[in-house]
Fold this protein.
Amino acid sequence: MAYLDLVQWPAMATTVVAAWLVASQVKRRRELGFWCFLLSNALWILWGFHDRAYALIALQIALAALNIRGAQKNDSEAS
């Protein structure tokens, strides 16, 4: 088994943790959640290239854009 096959597990765990954090009412936790989502997007893209899962890569790019938007909106709440 290639080591890159194992990337899907931390990607999945990071995604779950990110969803938990983003659901928080505490701004700092939500901010950390968006960063975790971006990390999970990168991990899923890495695994997607390894597994030639191009639809997954496209999905993760779109989700990363939404996560960046969410992080920006989270920052604007403080203003």
User: Anything to note?
Assistant: The chain has three helices and no strands. The helical segments are 8-22, 27-51, 54-76. The mean pLDDT is 94. The radius of gyration is 14 Å.
